[in-house]
Amino acid sequence: MELEKIKKYIREKQGFISDMDGVIYHGDRLLPGVKDFVKWLKKEKKHFLFLTNSSERTPRELQEKLHRMGIDVDRNVFYTSALATAQFLSSQHPKGTAFIIGEAGLINAMYNVGYTMNNIDPDYVIVGDTRNYSYEKLEQAVNLVIKGAKLIGTNPDVSGPVENGIAPSTKALISPIELATGKQAYFVGKPNPLMMRIALRRLGVRREDSIIVGDRMDTDIIAGIESEIDTLLVLSGISSVDTIKDFPYKPKFVMNRVGDIVS
Predict the structure, then answer these.
(1) Do 219 and 139 lie in a common domain?
(2) With CB atoms counted within 10 Å of each terminal CB, which end of the chain scores lower, N or C?
(3) Which residues are catalytic?
């Protein structure tokens, strides 16, 4: 399919599920074409959701971050792996307790569903993206899991893009706990279809009328494929054209950046 036909096909979609890191921004730098893309989404009255595997920030913090970059959107367009984790655990074990290695986004999400913090005998050990990672917390988490706490990861990303390169993400941070305890973590974020079903419900759009835009083959693209949603890989983040060859599946479409949809 030639490029203009691809763009027309994508622009006719009613629902847009977009990743953030590597698609919308790198660290504190807005990526080229994003302002035009968001302006177009609002002008055309599209249903859109910023779906991020990052669990560090609350929706309010994400809203304020985009505002500082010159983009104003409602707080309810953000959905994070922290919110998905809280919703999942609330349905599995309502009003439970947890030992958390993570930032405000994850801690607030757990509090908001009625969870309390517990470092003695929690129901769960939950690990999310964080820069407050220490040997002491790692040792504590290992022993709590050995005593019977269930191990949960907010997302299965090994790394994520930052301004000066990449940073270790949840799967890299949780691996020592898995190795030391012999227990495997359950990851709630993309590509878990659970997160995609939640996203579609929040959008109020059928999967046939939606598209997921992401920069990662191993989370965004496989999440779309397994949920039967059209996929667009953008090359502004983790993945390159060569990266695609490393996987036994491929995205439906590939573009350099999200702004190419409307340029």
Answers:
(1) no
(2) N
(3) 19, 21
Residues 169 and 105 in one domain: yes
Q: Give the pLDDT of residue 26.
A: 86
How far apart (Å, rounded) are the C-alpha atoms in residues 28 and 158? 20
pLDDT band at 165 (very low <50, low <70, confident <90, very high): confident
Identify whether residues 173 and 204 lie together within a single domain. no
Q: Domain limits at 245?
A: 3-53+190-261
pLDDT at 73 over 70: yes
**Residue 64 lies inside a defined structural domain of this protein:** no
Number of domains in the chain: 2
What percent of the chain shows pLDDT beyond 90?
86
Q: What is the pLDDT of residue 167?
A: 85
* Residue whose C-alpha is closest to residue 50's, from 234, 262, 212, 246: 212
On whether the CB atoms of residues 228 and 211 are closer than 8 A, the answer is no
The residue among 131 and 165 whose pLDDT is bigger is 131
